[in-house]
Amino acid sequence: LNRRLAEFGTTIFAEMSALAMSTGAINLGQGFPDTDGPEEIREAAVRALRDGRGNQYPPGPGVPELRTAIAAHQQRRYGLTYDPDTEVLVTAGATEAIAATLLALLEPGDEVIAFEPYYDSYAACIAMAGGTRVPVTLRPHPEDGRFRLDLDELRDAVTDRTRLLLVNTPHNPTGTVLTREELTAIAELAVERDLLVVTDEVYEHLVFDDAEHLPLATFPGMRERTVSISSAGKTFSFTGWKVGWVTGAPGLVTAVRSAKQFLTYVASGPFQYAVAEALALPDTYFEAFRADMLAKRDLLAAGLTAAGFEVFRPAGTYFITTDIRPLGERDGFAFCRALPERAGVVAIPNAVFYDHREAGAPFVRFAFCKRTDVLEEAAKRLGTLR
Ligand code: PMP
Ligand code: GLN
Fold first, then answer.
1. Which tens digits make up the pLDDT trace of 82-130?
2. What is the ipTM metric for this complex?
3. Fold that domain 39-279 belongs to in CATH
4. Rg for the chain (alpha carbons), in Å?
5. Which whole number is the average pLDDT over 19-26?
6. Residue 9 has what pLDDT?
7. Is the terminal CB of the chain with fewer CB neighbours within 10 Å at N or C?
8. How far is CA 45 from CA 33, 138, 183, 278, 288, in A?
């Protein structure tokens, strides 16, 4: 393994899912649902396969049906207008979108600001692109437990070498949804310092209570400097299909496409047609999905609280970050490695998402995108911890 990648080892998701398999523990680690997405969308994929749509290489930018559906979704949800031919690109999941974007836009030595804790592929992709990551740490507010961005710290992190801001909202793993005020400040900073912005919005449809997902591309001066990334995996509960996408101004999307063509060229042929149909589902689908996940959040949050964890109630995503110190624990890594034996549950130590590992040491993430009976059983098991 070369020096750029040596520090990253095996992704925590593979490690923890393997642990769940070998111990038979309930897997609340890796974020994937245990119930597949809508039957009619699975049928759409079968139809595409059977009709021979997408069984051979689809067009490089994605099939026109899907690019049109992505543009229509951005228009309908957010009032953002994108040309399906020049401003939309289909990728192999958000993961490839992130990789291709960073490989396309970074020069060696460019600095990328990302909010720590950050999704693990960010650091590896920045490294593969020869960039330097500059983490700005989100910290839980003493009053409401919301992991917050310190806007002064963000401003101070920008240097002459900063090329782009990598923003994830709703935020994995903390569940923070950035507010209009925070996004306004980020947008003003990007314009003032002439930065590119890459936004990872894979949890765009998972926001709860009063939270609202606001794409940065809708803020003044942002459309032309923002690459927006999302994916079908989370929204439609088909994480194995690996259909993602990028939207942005033509110059940016063309650049991302230049990198993407040499990573996979294309992927997910028949699934692209099915996702085009999924994006056109009526609002009732998205509302029911959100309501289901909200009930699951509350169920798992109550179980974790009863078990003695400090719970940071997420405003978005399908993850709950907890603090294990009330249980007399300090080290999330050790805790997660022991948890399958101790309680028959798998979770993720947030420390892996930090450069400042000690800042993340006591935090542990649990996924709640699981059946109600599974969450109830997990809560019961975790209740034996103290
Ligand atoms: N970004 C974030 C924040 C994620 O949690 C994930 C995991 N779904 C991804 C990107 C990757 O998405 P995909 O599975 O579509 O590659
Ligand atoms: N996004 C998922 C999570 O955060 C995992 C994706 C992966 O396995 N790489 O759990």
1. 999 999 999 999 999 999 999 999 999 999 999 999 999 999 999 999 9
2. 0.97
3. Aspartate Aminotransferase; domain 2 (3.40.640)
4. 20
5. 94
6. 84
7. N
8. 19, 40, 37, 10, 22
Ligand nearest to the CA of 200: 1
| Tokens describing residue 346 | 């798998």
Q: Where are the alpha helices (DSSP H) in the chain?
A: 12-23, 39-50, 64-78, 93-105, 120-128, 151-157, 180-192, 232-235, 250-263, 269-279, 283-306, 332-343, 357-360, 372-382
The predicted structure's pLDDT at residue 10 = 86
**At how many degrees (to 10) do helices 269-279 and 64-78 cross?**
30
Instruction: Assign 3 a pLDDT band (cuts: 50, 70, 90).
Output: confident
Task: Please say whether the beta carbons of 65 and 271 come within 8 A.
Answer: no
- pLDDT for 323-359, tens place per residue? 999 999 999 999 999 999 999 999 999 999 999 999 9
In short, whether 234's Cβ falls inside 6 Å of ligand 1 is: yes
Whether residue 314 has its Cβ less than 6 Å from ligand 2 = no
Structure tokens at 283: 């609002």
Average pLDDT over residues 144-162: 97
What percent of the chain is predicted at pLDDT more than 70?
Answer: 100
Ligand with smallest separation from the Cα of 365: 2
The CB of 239 under 6 Å from ligand 2? The reply is no
172 lines ligand 2 (CB under 6 A): yes
Q: Are 228 and 219 in contact (CB under 8 A)?
A: no
**How far does CA 252 lie from the centroid of its chain?**
21
Query: DSSP string spanning 44-104?
Result: HHHHHHHTTSSSS---TT--HHHHHHHHHHHHHHH-----TTTSEEEESHHHHHHHHHHHH
Ligand at minimal distance from the CA of 239 is 1
Average pLDDT of the residues of the chain:
97
Q: What are phi and psi of 148, to 5 degrees?
A: -115, 155
d(CA 94, CA 84): 18
Ordered by start, the domain boundaries in the chain are 6-30+284-382, 39-279
The count of residues in the chain is: 386
Q: Whose CA is nearest to atom 3 of ligand 2?
A: 31
